[in-house]
Amino acid sequence: MVHLSADECKDVSAVFSKVNVDQLGGESLASLLIVYPWTRRHFKTFGNLSSTDAILHNAKVQAHGAKVLGAVRDALKHVANLGGHFAHLSDLHCQQLFVDPANFKLFAGIVSIRVGQTMRQAYTPHVQASFEKFLDAVTDALAKGYH
Amino acid sequence: MVLSAADATHVHTVLDHVKGHEDTYGAEALNRTFTSHPQTKTYFHGKDLAENSAYLHSHGKKVMSALVNASAHCDNIYGALDKLSDMHAHELMVDPANFPILAHNILVTLAIHLPQVLTPACHVSLDKFLCEVGDALTHKYR
Questions:
Q1: Confidence of residue A55 (pLDDT cuts 50, 70, 90)
Q2: pTM value?
Q3: What tens digit of pLDDT does each residue of A57-78 get?
Q4: Which of A34, A52, A125 is the closest to B35 by Cβ?
Q5: DSSP H helical segments within chain B, as ranges?
Q6: CA B84 from chain center: how many Å?
Q7: Model ipTM?
Q8: Partner-chain contact A31 B127, CB within 8 Å
């Protein structure tokens, strides 16, 4: 299990306080679908995802991205038991949505890059390391229920 | 994976902004790699890896300059990186798992310094380019 120190949790909290979570989530999900087009397989009911422009203006993508990143932000309160906190969502992603956990890592990578674009130099190497460690812990927890 | 003409244009757009900043951006990308993935420091035993060290700047400049040079040959990246490919296969032998880690930290660095330049369209092209570079550097390993 991944343990985050108090300082690392503070860094993560600082990131979430400096970004617009809804906007960052929406942009990150849109970027995921653009940069890694095979991820579109999980969003066939979202309407037009046929071009970069269509994806960037897709309201369902924006809304879902906001929901996902909101859940990631809320998980910080449960960092001592992320496995338990995400048990239901892990089961959902495995049993009903059939999402390869590799996709969680791709999304995490994109979120980190977008945070860099927003926070600029305030996203120091140490803050980046803490934030990516948290995202790794979240993706591990989401993959835990797979069998 | 094939880099299209549009990909090549996007890669040039981004890397044109790197010219003149190879050492700063390179040093930062390496520092971010070492900070978030300390195991990558194992390839640099005995070197001064402190943030902004002379070594980080000189090595960072080497890495980013090689990328800028490779970007001029998007239709033949393997050819452009042939000598570096030999070096990585026979001398450096950096585990292939590390190239995506450095690629990610190059993207984070460019996102911080060039937030308006790294549009989603440029991001996908640059990601493809960096994957191709990693493949070029490791394809002679076995």
A1: very high
A2: 0.91
A3: 999 999 999 999 999 999 999 9
A4: A125
A5: 5-16, 22-36, 54-71, 77-80, 82-87, 98-113, 120-138
A6: 12
A7: 0.84
A8: no
Q: Is A147 exposed, middle or buried (0-12, 13-18, 19+ CB in 10 A)?
A: exposed
Nearest CA of chain B to the CA of A26: how many Å? Answer: 13
Q: Dig out the tokens for B2 from the structure.
A: 């094939």
Interface residues from chain B to A (CB-CB < 8 Å): 28, 31-32, 35-36, 51, 104, 107-109, 111-113, 115, 118, 120-121, 123-124, 127
Residue-wise pLDDT tens for chain B (142 aa)?
Answer: 679 999 999 999 999 999 999 999 999 999 999 999 999 998 998 999 999 999 999 999 999 999 999 999 999 999 999 999 999 998 998 989 999 999 999 999 999 999 999 999 999 999 999 999 999 999 999 9
Q: Residue A129: its chain B contacts at CB < 8 A?
A: 35-36
Amino acid at A77: K
Helical residues (DSSP H) of chain A, grouped into ranges? 6-18, 21-35, 52-56, 59-74, 82-85, 87-91, 102-119, 125-143
For the packed helices A125-143 and A6-18, what is the interaxial angle rounded to 10 degrees?
100
**CB–CB of A35 and B120 under 8 A?**
yes
Residue B108 has its nearest CB partner, among A56, A128, A133, at A128
Q: What is the distance of C-alpha A112 from the center of its chain?
A: 9
Give how far Cα B95 sits from Cα of B42, B109, B140, Å: 11, 22, 12
Among A16, A27, A9, which Cα is nearest to A119's?
Answer: A16
Q: Give Cβ neighbours of residue A49 (< 8 Å, ≥ 6 apart).
A: A33, A40, A43, A55, A58, A61
Nearest C-alpha in A relative to B34: A125
One-letter amino acid for residue A26 of the chain: G
Sign of CA dihedral A12, A14, A16, A19: negative
